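Entry:
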Amino acid sequence: MIELGKVQKLKVIRKTSFGVYLNTGVYLNTEKGNKESDILLPKSQIPKGTKIGDEIEVFVYRDSKDRMIATTKKPKLTLGEIGLLKVVEKSKIGAFLDWGLEKDLFLPFKEQTCSIKKGNSYLVGIYIDKSNRLCATMNIYKFLKYNAPYQVGDKVKGIIYKIKDEIGAFVAVDNKYHGLISDKEFYGEYKVGDEIEARVIKIKEDGKLDLSIREKSYMEIDKDAKLILGKLIIQDGELPFNDKTDPEVIKKEFNMSKRAFKRAIGKLLKEHKIKITKNGIIHNNKNIK
């Protein structure tokens, strides 16, 4: 059976002036004339010295006229796979992605999970739509697996494919496995399509990975404390923030959680580098008025 969207070996059935026709070489219901249609491999794609009966490894897709066709070129993604593809064109009904073949891959508008821009790359999977055409989707949750080979503490790489403010960032770890950076762990200027490095902080019962883009606590405390001291110096030794400040304000000003902020100022207090007043934080080198 010829499989749309997959790399497969097909046999040369016959030759023409514009290419060769391929098939599996196995036909069903031939008595009724109900055999599977042969597909064309264009002349420019034929390996040198190819003869009738030879097997050729090809990828099967649909051309600009919606006909099944074979190519010896390898696409960047095949059916069921996930990967980053660049947007080369946008239209009212969707976008077109470069996947390494003559005909660009269509990403329907309804399969987009965020506003996309021409020239940017996005994580997509490939599926067959109701019209039996290969299309891309940014809804890749169902493509991901649960059996990641990682342990708590391991460093992993992945791509952010969805962001929900009340939940966090959904990550495709190694473009294969489920990962989530919770809203409590998600800090920084990140967007859909960004590649990140994270640390596994928990493996759930269903096999999904909880991730953090922050370092281990003792390393983060040092870094956060230096950040706060730096802002104090810039602001002449005084900042209008303390442990009573709203968490959202802390996140906006320092790009850290309220919990991380309190740990950092606790460290600075123990080191006698700051004082806390009802109005905020004061550097110890500044006189309290």
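DSSP finds three helices and 18 strands in the chain.
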